Amino acid sequence: MRVRRARHECSKSAVPATPLTLRCVRSGKMSAEEMIMRALTVVPRQAGSLEVSEVAEPVAKDGELLVDGIALGVCGTDREIAAGQYAWAPPGEHRLILGHESLGRVREAAPGSGFSPGDLVVGIVRRPDPVPCGACAHGEFDMCRNGRYTERGIKELHGYGSGRWTVEADYAVRLDPSMEDVGMLLEPTTVVAKAWDHIERIGRRAWFEPRRVLISGAGPIGLLAALLGVQRGLDVHVLDRVTSGPKPELVAALGATYHTGSIPEVAADAQPDIVIEATGVPRLVLDAMANNAAASVICLTGVSPTGRPVEVDAGSLNRGIVLQNDVVFGTVNANRAHYDQAVRALGLADHAWLAGMVTRRLPLERAYEAFGQGEEEVKVVIDLTS
Q1: CA distance 367 to 384
Q2: DSSP per-residue letters across 240-284
Q3: Where are the domains of the chain?
Q4: Which helix (H) or strand (E) holds 298?
Q5: For residue 271, what are the contacts with CB-CB under 8 A and spacing of at least 6?
């Protein structure tokens, strides 16, 4: 549609009291010839700046797809950005379009791009640094060595939280049309696909036939990690403090075991060969390192808050890790290979189970509600078509 001269107004009475206010405003300077759309935006490192803004629609450059946004998943990273903890706008811009758990439908695709109008797609989040470092030069931009990478919706690139977006064909991933209601789960699945990829690579340092995995945290990352563990034929144990709601049900539907005790209690019985820590809670991180089978692999996927000291016997912790040949490593983000692995994993999953992970869907004008999540909720999704 054409640029409207009058600003779209949001009823103040429709916005509940919340530290994350939602306002509809025009952002930036646009000519009369430009088209506009709605987008979920923030001022990086400014708490309370979350807005639905009117911004210019993107124009696809050579090698890019023009995509109609369908849905956007919201995760802890988005909530931290909305709280003003970090994020960087594109150079020369004041606001950042939020969102990295994307799902859209191709509107325009250049001949030879490998895509066609109507294709269901997800956009890869990270881009390699411009130097590039050795890892980025080899397509492993998730392992960037110099920190000059960029990320859609997080670091110096606009995200996918808008009615229309563009993406380079090389950074678009096609999904089966049947995934239209759950395709926004692909990006978080890539995170655990990478985790499992690295766990298995580390395991090959010696004889490795894992039987049991313990996952702390039954949020989206923990549940998807459990899904991939079940797909590998492992005895999967999931630990969370929630005792009701969809989390225990989703774990049971996988054929896995749900626990609400402590890691030491669960590990004493399960003796996990693999531990995936998906909460970032400092006490749980330390417990994950200290309670496992010999020669285990401990993968940390949760980002811990700072400024919360926890007393620990570092000598005892180190002694156990060394004498048992344990490995502890952290992981974040994913490269193209992990997106391909995640597509296969979701294709093997029960569709109804995946749909059960989406516990709430909101229209864009109520997006602020997605930034105050209850403990029993799993994945909140913003509908970009409404």
Answers
A1: 10
A2: -S--SSHHHHHHHHHT-EEE-S-HHHHHHHH--SEEEE-S--HHH
A3: 12-181+356-383, 190-330
A4: strand 297-300
A5: 212, 292, 293
Residue type, position 356, single letter: G
| Cβ count near 322 (within 10 Å) | 9
Distance between CA 336 and CA 190 in Å, rounded?
9
CB 240 within 8 A of CB 263: no
**Mean pLDDT in residue range 293-316:** 94
Give the amino acid at 367: A
97 closest CA partner among 106, 109, 88, 105: 88
Q: Is 190-330 a CATH 3.30.70.120 domain?
A: no
d(CA 55, CA 25): 9
Between CA 188 and CA 144 the distance in angstroms is: 19
And the tokens for 233?
Answer: 């034929």
- Which pLDDT belongs to residue 312? 94
Cα(184)–Cα(77) distance, integer angstroms: 15
Measure the CA–CA gap between 127 and 374, rounded to whole angstroms: 32
Q: Cα–Cα distance between 191 and 298 in angstroms, integer? A: 15
How far apart CA 90 and CA 96 sit, in angstroms, is 7
12-181+356-383: CATH topology? Quinone Oxidoreductase; Chain A, domain 1 (3.90.180)
What does the alpha-carbon distance between residue 118 and residue 353 come to, in Å, rounded to a whole number?
A: 26
Task: Please report which confidence band the pLDDT of residue 291 belongs to, taking 50, 70 and 90 as the band edges.
Answer: very high
> What is the overall mean pLDDT for the chain?
92
End-to-end CA distance of the chain: 15
pLDDT given at position 29: 52
Q: Which of 188, 99, 161, 181 is nearest to 378 (CA)?
A: 188
Q: Which residues contact 121 (CB under 8 A, 6 or more apart)?
A: 65, 67, 103, 104, 105, 106, 115, 167, 172, 173, 174, 175
For 310, residues 6+ apart whose C-beta sits below 8 A from its C-beta are 282, 283, 286
Phi-psi region at 28: left, alpha or beta (left = phi > 0; alpha = psi -120 to 50):
left
**Starting at the edge strand that comes first in sequence, how are the strands of the sheet with 212-216 ordered?**
257-259, 235-239, 212-216, 274-277, 297-300, 327-330
pLDDT, average across residues 270-289: 97
